[in-house]
Design goal:
The chain is 38% helix and 24% strand. It has 476 residues and is an alpha/beta fold. Helix 6 links the parallel strand 8 and strand 9.
C-alpha cells in the first residue's frame, strides 16, 4: 500500500484503493491508502501545528524547497509522465508535457518566494509611516480533480507554500499515483514536518473534513459545479476563504474570413485532445454559415483520421476515457444529441482495441440548436457540436448565452472582430486563432459566471488568494 503523508511521516490508511489503467484494465498500477475522517483530522492538526513556524520561515528556505521539487519533476519527466498516462489515460506526450509544466510551476514560485513584495507609503499624518505587507492565510485545504493530476496540484500547492501556508492536499480518488509521486518528492524537499500533508481518500470523507475544519482557513477546489457550490455554502458559515474552478461550456467561433486550416486545428486540438477531458476544452463550434459546410466536412475528416488507442503507444493521438462512469456519461450524451435532432456526423461509439479499455471515437454533431442539452451542458469528453450562425453578432450572442464563462476562442482574419470579441466575450480567458485549451503557467487562470469563484489561480495573481493584506502604522 502506498501510504498517506501526515506530519512528516508515511502512514497507512484505514483502507486501500486499487488503481487501474483505463487503457488496459488488467494493468494494476498499485494500491493506495484511503484515509478515514480521523486520519484527515490528524493531517489538519499537523498542518495547524506547523503553520506558525512556516509562516515566519526564511524566504530562501521556501525558494530552495520549491526549486528542488521543480528540478526533480523536470528530471523525471518521462518516468512520471508514463505513470500519469497509465492512470489517467492521456497520451504519453501529453502526460510528459504535464509533468514538465508542473516542474516549471514549482520553479516559477521558487523565484516568487524571493520576490515577496510590500509597500512603504507616507501617511497623511505627519511623522507616521505606513507599511502594507502580505501574510499567509493559514492552513490551506487543496482539493484537486483527476484530469490534470500533476499540473493542477502544482499550481495550487506551489503558491500556497511559496506564501507561507501549510497544506492539506486531497487528490482525486481516481488518480492517486501521480499525487503520491508528487508528495514523495515534496517529502524530501526540506519542509518542516506538517507543512505539507497528503491525505488520499473519498471526497465525502476527507474532503468534507477539510471543508468543515475550523483550522483550515482557505480551501482551493477544482471540480464539478455541484460540489463547488456545496463547498461554498459549507465554508461560508465559518467565513473561510474559497477559490473555486468548476465547469465550462466553451465556445469556439469560426467566422467566414477565418483560415480554414487554422480553424480545424483549433477545433480538433481544443475539443478532442486529452480525450476532451479539460475544463477549457471547446465544446461548441459556432460557425458562420458561409464557412459552415467546409468547416464541418474538414473537421469530420480530421476526427476520422485520429488514432485512438493505448495511451502509451507512440502512434496514439487520443487515449481512453478516464473511467467507466465517464464513458457511460459520454455515450449517454451522444444518445441525447441524436434524440434532440442534432446530426451525428462522425464518431460517438465505444471502440475495441487489443487491450480492454475505455476507448471512444471522438464525436461531432452538426446542425445543433443552442437550446439543446449537448450545446448547454458540460459533457467533459470527446463530444462537440457545430451550431450555425448568421453573422458575427449572432455568433457572439450564442456564445455568451451560457451560465459558464471559463474560456472562449475565435478564428478570424479580422482585427476588428478579434478586438471586439476580446472585449465583449463573457469569459475569463479569450483566445484568437489558438485553441481554447492552451494556457500558460505564469499568467492568471480562471473564469466568470458559474465557472469560477474567488481570486485567480497561477502567476503573481495567486498571491490574492494565498495571502491576506496587513497595513501597519508607525510613528517615526
Amino acid at each position: 500500500m502506498k501510504p498517506n503523508y501526515i506530519g512528516g511521516a508515511w502512514l497507512d490508511g484505514a483502507s486501500a484503493r486499487d488503481n487501474l489503467n483505463p487503457s488496459d484494465l488488467s494493468d494494476h498500477i498499485g494500491h493506495y491508502a484511503h484515509a478515514d475522517a480521523a486520519q484527515a483530522q490528524q493531517a489538519i492538526q499537523a498542518a495547524a501545528r506547523a503553520q506558525a513556524g512556516w509562516a515566519h520561515s526564511g524566504i530562501q528556505l521556501r525558494a530552495s524547497a520549491l526549486d528542488f521539487i521543480g528540478a526533480e519533476l523536470l528530471a523525471r519527466q518521462q518516468e512520471l509522465g508514463t505513470l500519469l498516462a497509465r492512470e489517467e489515460g492521456k497520451t504519453l506526450a501529453e502526460a510528459a508535457g504535464e509533468v514538465a509544466r508542473a516542474g516549471h510551476i514549482f520553479k516559477f514560485y521558487a523565484g516568487e518566494a524571493l520576490r515577496l513584495r510590500g509597500d512603504k507609503l507616507a501617511s497623511v499624518r505627519p511623522g507616521v509611516e505606513v507599511e502594507v505587507t502580505r501574510e499567509p492565510v493559514g492552513v490551506v485545504g487543496i482539493i484537486t480533480p483527476w484530469n490534470f493530476p500533476m499540473a493542477i496540484p502544482a499550481w495550487k500547492i506551489a503558491p500556497a507554500l511559496c506564501h507561507g501556508n501549510a497544506v492539506v492536499f486531497k487528490p482525486a480518488d481516481l488518480v492517486p499515483g501521480s499525487a503520491w509521486a508528487l508528495a514523495e518528492i515534496i517529502s524530501r524537499a526540506g519542509l518542516p514536518p506538517g507543512v505539507f500533508n497528503l491525505v488520499m481518500g473519498r471526497g465525502s470523507v476527507v474532503g468534507q473534513a477539510i471543508i468543515e475544519a475550523p483550522a483550515v482557513r482557505a480551501v482551493s477546489f477544482t471540480g464539478s459545479v455541484e460540489t463547488g457550490r456545496q463547498l461554498l455554502l459549507a465554508t461560508a458559515q465559518r467565513q473561510a476563504k474559497v477559490q473555486l474552478e468548476m465547469g465550462g461550456k466553451n465556445p469556439l467561433l469560426i467566422l467566414d474570413d477565418a483560415d480554414l486550416d487554422t480553424a480545424v486545428h483549433c477545433a480538433v486540438q481544443g475539443a478532442y485532445y486529452s480525450t476532451g477531458q479539460r475544463c477549457t476544452a471547446s465544446s461548441r463550434f459556432i460557425v458562420e454559415k458561409g464557412i459552415y459546410p467546409a468547416f464541418v466536412r474538414r473537421t469530420a475528416e480530421a476526427l476520422a483520421a485520429l488514432r485512438v488507442g493505448h495511451a502509451l503507444h507512440a502512434d496514439t493521438q487520443i487515449g481512453p476515457v478516464a473511467d467507466a462512469g465517464q464513458l457511460a456519461q459520454n455515450l449517454d450524451y451522444v444518445a441525447i444529441g441524436r434524440a434532440e435532432g442534432a446530426r451525428l456526423v462522425t464518431g460517438g461509439e465505444r471502440l475495441s482495441r487489443e487491450t480492454d479499455g475505455y476507448f471512444m471515437r471522438p464525436a461531432l454533431f452538426a446542425d445543433a440548436e443552442p437550446s439543446m442539452r449537448i450545446a448547454r451542458e458540460e459533457i467533459f469528453g470527446p463530444v462537440a457540436c457545430a451550431i450555425p450562425a448568421d453573422n458575427y453578432e449572432h455568433a457572439l450572442a450564442i456564445a455568451n448565452d451560457t451560465p459558464f464563462g471559463l474560456s472562449a476562442g475565435i478564428c478570424t482574419g479580422s482585427l476588428k472582430h478579434a478586438t471586439h470579441f476580446k472585449r465583449h466575450m463573457q469569459s475569463g480567458m479569450v483566445m484568437v486563432n489558438v485553441p481554447t485549451a492552451g494556457v500558460d503557467y505564469h499568467v492568471p487562470f480562471g473564469g466568470t459566471k458559474g465557472s469560477s469563484h474567488g481570486a485567480r489561480e497561477q502567476g503573481t495573481h495567486a498571491a490574492e488568494f494565498f495571502t491576506s493584506v496587513k497595513t501597519a502604522y508607525t510613528m517615526a
